[in-house]
Specification:
There is one protein chain. The protein has 19 helices and 6 strands. The chain is mostly helical.
């Protein structure tokens, strides 16, 4: 488990203590359901509910001998219960308890992750509205393309996080299932009504059909949703890293008082938080691959998935929890340099308006091929001669013969380029915000 990044709230879910607590929750729910059905004596179920408890150290001591964790657990519980312990685990097989209990842990962890994604989305929304009309250059292939606003970039993050929320919510539903179906899923010892009653008590849905285990395509879906959410965070963090390059200098992740960037170079202010998020996203993808490998098991069950899940489930939830918390702080404290954005927008001497000039020439009857040639030759001159693009167009007899000076000037109107920003914000956020 990646202890360094463990937030206590998430870490608690994946402790041995919590794992055995959920096992006990399942065992007691089963005893109560069977008592209600007349299978287990009511007084025995009450005695279990009152006296059942366990000791982690004792479980580990017993498991060292039995090499079976569920038997070690039930033995430890029985030591505290007395004669009623014969009704503990009655009619159940190990995976009935383990898989159903693990669903409780995953749902609890999902709820925390969903809360954090909502929080990050709120932070992104606030910064998007703040910079709705902060102009900057958009880049394709890393090269200046056309003008946009920094708020649009953040609005896209907000929208993508919405899809992450939906995916995580669907994955939560996929794993929110339990089973009490027996050794090969045939309900040979307990009827499906017991399974339904147990799941109802635990807030789960009964699996429509299972073998000895709940099928691992559900878990793979969850791990895929976690990995995709991590990939979203990586996308956003990578953007900040790119914009923080000295040569660009448009955005900077927060740099705390007393923070040091380099042991050798005191001037350094490195995007280490964003780099960490990019790195951890790789771990999430690798864990998702392991979850896909867990889908195929021999016949009605083997345990090749079990050891994998003991690593990938806690590690992935803990890593994503950390990534979401850290990136929320980065977004909230992110330093934005609008003047630098404006400088970079103007750095390419106006060639970023070439597309608008091309369209205006086409509107005036010039073929697209001919218009493209005229515009491109002036854009290339602006690059190579380090000359203002608009000035070159005004001096070009072909272009000026079709477009007057005022029309060429209008083609360079930044407000015209960005006239639909409010409409995009209305689509993303449901309201147009000035």
């Amino acid at each position: 488990m990646i202890q360094r990044y463990t937030n206590p709230e998430m870490g608690r879910i994946w402790t041995e203590q919590r794992r055995y607590e959920t096992w006990l929750d399942v065992e007691l729910a089963a005893a109560d359901a069977m008592a209600e059905a007349g299978i287990v004596p009511a007084d025995a179920a009450r005695e279990l509910r009152v006296n059942a408890r366990f000791d982690v150290a004792r479980i580990e001591e017993i498991e060292a001998v039995t090499h079976h964790d569920v038997i070690a657990f039930t033995t430890s519980v029985a030591e505290h219960v007395g004669p009623a312990a014969r009704w503990l685990h009655f009619g159940l097989t190990s995976s009935d308890v383990v898989d159903t209990a693990q669903a409780l842990q995953m749902v609890e962890a999902c709820d925390l992750i969903l809360r954090l994604v909502h929080g990050l989305r709120g932070a992104v929304r606030a910064r998007a509205l703040e910079h709705q009309h902060t102009p900057m250059i958009g880049r394709t292939h890393g090269v200046h393309a056309e003008p946009m606003t920094f708020g649009l970039k953040l609005a896209l993050w907000y929208d993508q996080l919405g899809r992450d929320l939906a995916r995580l919510g669907r994955a939560r539903d996929a794993v929110r299932v339990g089973q009490i179906s027996g050794a090969v899923g045939t309900f040979a010892h307990l009827d499906p009504s017991i399974e339904a009653a147990v799941c109802r008590r635990l807030g789960l849905e009964p699996a429509a059909i299972s073998t000895q285990v709940i099928q691992r395509d559900r878990h793979a879906e969850l791990m895929a949703a976690i990995a995709i959410t991590g990939a979203s965070l990586e996308t956003f963090a990578l953007e900040i890293r790119g914009l923080q390059k000295t040569e660009i200098g448009e955005v900077e992740e927060p740099f705390a008082k007393g923070q040091k960037g380099s042991s050798a170079m005191p001037h350094k202010r490195n995007p280490i938080g964003c780099e960490q998020i990019v790195g951890l996203s790789r771990l999430l993808r690798a864990n998702a691959v392991a979850a896909f490998e867990n889908v195929a098991l021999w016949h009605e069950r083997d345990i090749s998935h079990s050891s994998v899940e003991r690593v990938i489930l806690p590690d992935s939830f803990i890593a994503l929890d950390h990534m979401l918390r850290r990136f929320t702080r980065i977004v909230a404290g992110m330093v934005v340099y609008p003047d630098r954005m404006r400088d970079n927008l103007e750095r390419s001497r106006g060639v970023v308006f070439s597309g608008q000039v091309l369209l205006e020439l086409a509107r005036r009857g010039i073929s697209r091929e001919q218009a493209y040639e005229w515009v491109q030759r002036n854009a290339m001159r602006a690059f190579h001669e380090r000359t203002d693009f608009k000035t070159l167009l005004l001096a070009d007899t072909d272009v000026a013969g079709v477009m007057g000076a005022a029309e060429i000037e209008r083609a360079f109107d930044l407000n015209e380029q960005l006239r639909n920003v409010d409409a995009i914000f209305a689509r993303v956020f449901g309201t147009a915000t000035a």
